[in-house]
Amino acid sequence: MLVESLLYITLFFALGIIFLIFRAIIYPKIRLLQLKKKYGDKIQIVHHYGTGLPMEYRKGFVERNDSMAFVRKMAAEKTNKMQVFGFNIGYNVGLSFLDPELIKQVHQSHDAFQKINISQAFNYLFSDSLFYATGKNWQRQRQFLGKSFHFDEIRNYLPSIKELCSKVTDQLNKDLKANPQQEIQVINVCEKITSEVVFRVFFGSTQENMMITREDGSQLHLSEELVSLIMDSFRILQQNKLLLLKNLILKSYSFKIFPLKEEKWLLNRLVQVKAACEKVVLKRKEELQQNLDQYKNNFLDLYLKEMIENKNSGITYDEIIANFCGLFFAGTDTTGNMTGVALYYLSLNPQIQKEARDEVIRVISKKNQDIKGNDLFSSLQFEDLSNMNLCNSILKESLRLIPPAFGVFPRYVTRDIKIGQYELKKGDLVNTHFIYNQSNPQTFTNPDKFDPYRWMNGNESQNAFNFTPFSLGPRNCIGQHLAMIEGKCMLANFLLNYDILPNESQKVQLEMKIIYGFSQDNLVYFKKRQQ
Ligand SMILES: *[C@@H]1O[C@H](CO)[C@@H](O)[C@H](O)[C@H]1NC(C)=O
Ligand SMILES: *[C@@H]1O[C@H](CO)[C@@H](O)[C@H](O)[C@H]1NC(C)=O
Ligand SMILES: *[C@@H]1O[C@H](CO)[C@@H](O)[C@H](O)[C@H]1NC(C)=O
Ligand SMILES: *[C@@H]1O[C@H](CO)[C@@H](O)[C@H](O)[C@H]1NC(C)=O
Ligand SMILES: *[C@@H]1O[C@H](CO)[C@@H](O)[C@H](O)[C@H]1NC(C)=O
Ligand SMILES: CC(=O)N[C@H]1CO[C@H](CO)[C@@H](O)[C@@H]1O
């Protein structure tokens, strides 16, 4: 009797384990093979046991110096039939859409998808933000935030952007005087500007005195801590397999149930950052409550005014803080890397660099021939930026070749749905890789060539859906105008001050971290120009 029941228990467990192995490891492969059989030439399969898509990025990076190598390869093979690739992440199966028409449909079907919790820091910081909001809540938030990102509104941010550009230039000049071969880490320099811009746009004040103290006693800016938190939250998942597994199984509850050492470490820092933001928000609310005349034109005041004046606004402190963190994350690294890519290509193309510099000088001095040298940048006006056609095209071409957001993060499908002829089941994943048609020779001739002129002089009339670096549909990037304004302003500033030269001894590697871009930040260096 005893032996028999032991036998049953063992059998039961063995079956359970076999089932788990089947579900977690074999099943995704079978589903993907079925998809291949069903859709034939139109689909390719990207499968890795256990890990999935992140492994393919990693493989491309290690073997080909480019995490997106596999997508570029698909685009280069002139089969003309590919529309989608099937992939797995862990035990989930998903489809990634490549064809612009299908991508459009994905972005029109938001109600059928739910964003995944990308990492714990992401979840903790952004879960109340526009990024994760859905339905009516999303509509309300987007409308509210949209007001401040309106093109006409952005003109008010230009003085700040210019001031910050001049500030980093002063520092660079000092450094270069001491050592002309100085390594400058240009993306980092750009991010000093973009991070402070977000801060000012949001809080109306500088972040200079908003410091965070870490456990080891070291102090750093709130913005640096935010970026490093998000990076660390991904890094610990990559380094600790147990943590990864725990996260895959427990999802957002992993923090709460038997937290590991790394999780506690991360959570402490997250709590600290949120508390620091909250302090600023509450202090400002008090000030405005006492005297609404102190109102200034920035996000925080806009939110708080609405909260004070409209009791049914639905706005919460959590939402305000989450949107600050969200905008900060979305507006700092991306714009910095975009500009870094543009500077890299300019360093390789001295002729285009010269033409761009001439354009900047021509446009600014058009109003007044007497403006020269150091005064050029300070007399840059908002309207000038719209006239810098080549600089604009340089940024667009950089975004085409190396888009920081190469697609969208995977989402869960919440009900069975068809995109084109492709059937997705509830629980599947879906994402897009815009980068596909941006490197497709049938869409862009010589796709690997940096050619900003392809965007100029009426060349631009290509299908708008072939080029969507800011995503598309109602949930596209809310900060796209601001990003382009910042990018052009930084380009103009650097072009006027420096010759941009390539660092021939550095190897060029493209890596997918949270965004996509160069893994090194010393691909160019600057030589001071005599003005
Ligand atoms: C990757 O970069 C290294 C160093 O620059 C180079 O030697 C190697 O050939 C590159 N690999 C490929 C596949 O391009
Ligand atoms: C994108 O590339 C695919 C594959 O070559 C092509 O069939 C499709 O027409 C392109 N999409 C557009 C909108 O041009
Ligand atoms: C992500 O986490 C939040 C809680 O923070 C939860 O409400 C939501 O359902 C989670 N989403 C998914 C797809 O697991
Ligand atoms: C160029 O790249 C090399 C190799 O990584 C690096 O040691 C050097 O500091 C870089 N030079 C500049 C000026 O950035
Ligand atoms: C249009 O694009 C082509 C190819 O990119 C380029 O060579 C040409 O100069 C552009 N035409 C104009 C008028 O700029
Ligand atoms: C892909 C990526 O994130 N690239 C870089 C963007 O810029 C920052 C700031 O220098 C780098 O740390 C990233 O590696």
TrEMBL record:
Coiled-coil positions: 278-305
SUPFAM superfamilies listed in its UniProt record: Cytochrome P450
Named cofactor requirement(s): heme
Signal peptide span: none
Name of one Pfam family that matches: p450
Residues holding heme: C477
Origin superkingdom: Eukaryota
Protein name: Cytochrome P450 family monooxygenase
Source organism per UniProt: Tetrahymena thermophila (strain SB210)
